[in-house]
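Posting for a labmate who doesn't have an account.
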Amino acid sequence: REDIDKRGVTTIQELLERHAGFNIFDENGNELEHKVSMRGFKDGNDIVVVLDGMRINDPNGNFVAWNLIPLESIDRIEVVRGGATSLYGPYALSGVIKIWTRRGKETNGRITTGISSHAGRDMTVSWGSSTERIDGSINSTVRHGKGYRNNSDFHYEDLGGEFGIRLGDGRYAIQLQRHEDKVGRAGELTEGAMLSSRQQTVKPLDYGEFDQTRIGLSAQHPLFEGELNLRFNYRERDRLTHSTSIIFGNRTLTSDDLFSRAGVVEWSRKFGNHGISLLYDEKYDNTLAIQKNAATNAMMTNRTITERTKSGAARIDLALGSDWTLTGTARYDNFRISNRDNLGDTTADGIRKFDEFSPGGALIWHPEPLGRDGKFFVSASRGYKPPNIFELYAFPLWGSNKNLSPAKSKTMEAGIFIDRDKFDLGTTLFEIDMKDEISYDPATNMNLNIAKTERKGIETYLGIELGKNLSLSSELTWIAAKTKLNPTALQTEGKHIPQVPGFQSSTTLSWEPGRYSLAVTHRHVGKQWVDFDDDNNMLQLPSYDLFDLTASYRPRETVKLELAVKNIGGKKYVSRGIDSFDGFWNPTVYYNPSPETEYYGSLTWEF
């Protein structure tokens, strides 16, 4: 948590973009709904996010509503890559982001109020306490602002907390969250429009609105010399969006009401230096999706979508002597997805079931010269990505195919980590091969399982203590993501997958002499092809370099002043481009311009 507080950020996406390897891009023209991808994937649905042991990805495509996770509630974040990802089921192709929220420890409270560019204001109040038997925490956040662009204003409210009680050797807890936000969606601009004004919008009526209630129950108790964890999550999420098509000019109002329940049973035990974990989970999602013509209120679609997953998984850690560890994981999923048209159009109705097995494993060597947590490792895993509701049951005009199979992934990686007192170094080489990827075939007007893609890369981390109060950390990622086979679009074979930067880096120099702290970060994002430019015919998005500054001062132990400046120098850049058409069907590239220099200042009082 201390590292999060030093970053001077207000969203999880801002926190992740300070680390190379995460591709953060703006899809809607506002600061709350940026998407996150990893390791050469481009759509933001290649990651599984686990919050306090429960998967929170949205159904109908696996996207993550990051705005529903308040940064203030987070205690720590862990990123899982490689062989262990097979333990987390569908869509865990590039990695898993595990997030733990804060628990009440010693009695303390905190109030933070902040101001930012574009009339931004925020206030967060949090409090936690703990006794021998009872602990609790509560946090509330309110944020609002006009945003960088016209029609990118936002209003955000979140209230959450946890109450836990210890009975005997066990702990039992309840979590509650209530969230509301509304944000304008400024949309994309042509290059000519950006030259006129980067802050304008051609979609002045578009917006997204979220409303969520979440209840979580958990229990931890010793069992058979191990630990039993029971978790249950209930969620109601209503989403309302207004969208305008640049090509057709029509306006659509979509309501997407989700009811979700999930349960997890996990037991783990240590046998000396060995360990075993067994897991069973179920998840049920029911979504009522309604689309209307925003101008006439005429009904366009009304359908009920359900997804149900029943899964069993196991992990075994075997200590092979004092320096070697062999880890094996396996997961079986029974995944079911269905679509029912509530207007009587049975041509779009259907049910598909998928039974998938995902194994993984790693061999780790811990030689003493590499330090306490130093290691060499190799790992391999298999995963899968089921077809989503739109690929299976959209209108036939858009290529839906009820007979699609899941795309399959095979991931291999090898690396080294060195952990010394004042020096950390890590390097990982990885390769992800995808087969049976879903691609549109114009000859049959259908989506088909025909494409193969390949992603290769190197991830490097370096951390050095340069002096008593001075440290340097640097992350570098190089990725080559290409289409290997696509019989229905031969011109894409051997081409780069769009919206994937080839090279990224993030380097931070930190100085922390007592009550002061100062950090300067340089971020580089390399060239990338614009989205949907699968044959690499359009111009690439140019690379860009950004410098950020974060400074803090504690005039007393319980008070902290903080100032963050993002994009010093006001670099004009875009994080996403789209290969599309204009209203006359002329090929056109649209862009999502990113803000120039932005400021954030805050005052924190701890009590």
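Reply:
Got it, the structure tokens are right above this. The chain has one domain: 2-606.
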